[in-house]
Amino acid sequence: MKPKHLVLMVLLGGLVSLKPVAALPVAVLVAIGICDFQRSRQFDARSWRRYFLGNGLLTWALAPLNLLVDALCRRNLRIYRLADLPAGHREEIAYVIDAFRQNLPLVEQLAPQMTSKRRGMCFARWYGKPLDGSLAMPAFQRDFRYVQTIGCSIFNRRQRTSVHYGPLRLTLRCLYNLDPASGDDVFIEVAGRRHYWRDDPLFIFDDTLVHQSVNDSDRLRYCIFLDVLRPSPFPAVLCLLVRCVRTTVVSARRVFYANWDMIR
């Protein structure tokens, strides 16, 4: 029996044991979860357990919202090139990257805070709200229409994330490596596809796909970290949902990045 069939049998067995009044909503949630899960195209038993019983639980819980967002947006390409995005998105992404590159000393000043840390995250904006800190550059005080979150993620030497799912599909994750290593030991892998920073410092993807970032080199890895509103015929609706997320989960950075150290 294939692993995916075994996991489905366990889920269905759990449903059968529930009373009818409780079984229907649970069955709907499981069906929505399966619909959402299959997007990563990783059907081994470990992936099923990770999504339904492990660190994918938050993504499963938010699957109804994410599928609604899918209906409001253009077709999800899963992994994007910059050219796949509309002109307004491209302009804002290029603007932020240029601002970081012109202010590299500010980014490099974060290095001393990484002495005893595995992975650090420093934010300049969080879901549209400007934040104080080392990255609070004047360039980031402008009104962004598409870029919602601006930060920098820093990996210490020989560090990697767990294999995990992001929670929300309101935005696309845009990463730009500020100092790409020339070897094959620094990369990100998304839904089975491995991207080496040496080949292209820019990588844009759907964060709710299963992924892992790896720095097996002997130097720090700096990546610009952006959340960019998904292309949609209804940008005002997505902006409203982003504001709702920001106001209802005000301290969500501690939840979403529980395995990271927040640095300033």
Automatic annotation (TrEMBL):
**Residues in Aspartyl/asparaginy/proline hydroxylase domain copies:** 149-231
Enumerate the InterPro entries for this protein: Asp/Arg/Pro-Hydrxlase, IPNS-like_sf
The name this protein carries in UniProt is: Aspartyl/asparaginyl beta-hydroxylase, cupin superfamily
Source organism per UniProt: Caballeronia arationis
